[in-house]
Amino acid sequence: MSTFYLTTLGCKVNQYESQAIAEALQKQGFARVMKPAAAQYIYINSCAVTARAVRDLRKMLRRMNNESCGARIIVTGCAAQIMQQELETLEEVDLVIPQSRKKLLLNHPFPDSDLENKSVPEDFRITGYLRARPAVKVQDGCSQACSYCIVPSTRGGPVSRDPGDVLFQIRELLNRGFPEIVICGINLGLYGRDLNPCCDFWDLLNFLEQNLAREWNNRARIRLSSLDPGQLNSKALDTIANSRMLCPHFHLAMQSGSPGILRAMRRDHYSFSNVDNFINQVKKTIPLFSLGTDILVGFPGETGQDFDQTRRMVHNLPLSYAHVFTFSPRPGTPAAGYSPQVTEQDKKHRSMLIKKIIQEKKSIFVQELLARKELRLVMEDRYKGMCEYYVECFSAQCPSGLKAGDAVRAKPLRAEGTKLRVEVNVQCWY
Q1: Which of 46, 48, 47, 3 minimizes the C-alpha distance to 22?
Q2: Cβ neighbourhood burial of 69 (10 Å; 0-12, 13-18, 19+)
């Protein structure tokens, strides 16, 4: 029996597609192994969203080559889309499958070079997941063309999954015992525009609520991945307020608080004031929720005043966490040629200031959770679980029989920095 090892770089969409590839390979008679040294085939699902992601890929290729025993190494994903020729010249790489042809791996473990003559399956589909909280892809691609982003070049234009197909996929995972589903996409704000009839992401969530809540309310939950701030309208408020299954956790890709920088990023379809108003409206129906964001500092032309606007935004939003990035030019994007460039020293300093604010906010939010009588965790291993508010919780003890994927109740005990120590009750939510 042939063996394979598969590893993933990048986003939840990539993780979902990797799971689909792994299941397809197993259906074709391959056995999955957890160490490269035991594999005859090594698959790397790559990312290209940042320069660091590409560096990580190069490092991984060298490590996989050293650790394996003559395995064939196949690279697919976003980096394979924009760096195909370069990757094909590397001695560690046996085959490159660009993102646009990744679905070939669902039918062909080692497709030959004549890709154009091979049929591509309709879509990825999964029945399980290596992690406790499966991601389900509902949308792919993007046409927004943010000036710093390479994704439209790697994944093409927006493609939405039919609501009925999304429902079928989620229901299958729920029936297999997964208590939390993470809905993800490359740009959820573009969901449904290409469907007939046309709809939007909130229509999808309402459809899922109507078809799942009666059976699964209090037995399972749905978590949203990153949202575009431009999605936050009255329909979003109604959907969130009326949902019985959504986690009280929202992640907004704000990037900057400066209107001028947002224009330069080609993201001026929203503003901090719009988002702030929306968050205040959400508070009227959900008194406590987790809020995360992405912040990109050091964008070309970002002045001290621009940065101060971002810092004030971060200070004013009720954030519980944030992902802070420093700008690095991506070849092939308009922003790579923008000037003036911000110095590395200023980037580092600005990043540090934002992270300091975020650290303080995380600590405050964890203290708020201590006032809760109970949290509902999905265990990620015997000792650690993720609560509904997207905070890692660590068990003060290890009840007998506790395992990854269990949905348990927990009592908050004490804060340990930005983490939470809890007493786990093995009683399930339901």
Answers
A1: 3
A2: exposed
Question: Rounded distance, CA 308 to CA 312, Å?
Answer: 6
What is the chain's alpha carbon radius of gyration, rounded to the nearest angstrom? 22
Answer whether residue 4 shows pLDDT above 80. yes
Q: Is the pLDDT at 428 greater than 90, yes or no?
A: no
Helix (H, G, I), strand (E, B) or coil at 424: strand
Q: What is the tens place of the pLDDT at every residue in 179-190?
A: 999 999 999 999
Instruction: Report the alpha-carbon angle 79-226-372, nearest 5.
Output: 135
Please state the domain extents for the chain.
3-114, 135-368, 375-425
Name the phi and psi angles at 385, rounded to 5. -140, 165
Query: Which helix (H) or strand (E) element contains residue 6?
Result: strand 3-8
Q: Which CATH superfamily is domain 3-114 in?
A: Methylthiotransferase, N-terminal domain (3.40.50.12160)
Which of 117, 93, 91, 92 is CA-nearest to residue 104? 117
Distance between CA atoms of 103 and 193, rounded to whole angstroms?
Answer: 23
Task: Locate all alpha helices (DSSP H) within 148-254, ordered by sequence.
Answer: 151-155, 163-175, 201-216, 234-242
Q: For 98-107, 189-198, 246-255, 417-426, which range has the lowest pLDDT when averaged over its residues?
A: 417-426
The 249-255 sheet, strands edge to edge = 226-227, 249-255, 290-297, 321-326
- Asked if residue 249 lies in contact with residue 319, where contact means CB atoms within 8 angstroms, the answer is no
Question: Residue 322 and residue 407: Cα distance in Å, rounded?
Answer: 26
Q: What type of residue is 109?
A: P
200 class by beta-carbon count within 10 Å (0-12 exposed, 13-18 middle, 19+ buried): buried
Spatial contact of 279 and 289, defined as CB atoms under 8 Å apart: no
Q: What is the pTM of this model?
A: 0.94
Q: Which helix (H) or strand (E) holds 360?
A: helix 344-370
What is the architecture of the domain spanning 135-368? Alpha-Beta Horseshoe (3.80)
Instruction: Tell me the pLDDT of the chain averaged across its residues.
Output: 94
Q: 244-256: b or e for each residue (b if 16 or more CB lie within 10 Å)?
A: ebbbbbbbbbbbb
Amino acid identity of 7? T
The tokens of 101 are what? 């042809």
DSSP string, 269-312: T--HHHHHHHHHHHHTT-SS-EEEEEEEE--TT--HHHHHHHHH
Cβ atoms of 420 and 395 within 8 Å: the answer is no
| Pair of tokens at residue 270 | 């929203």
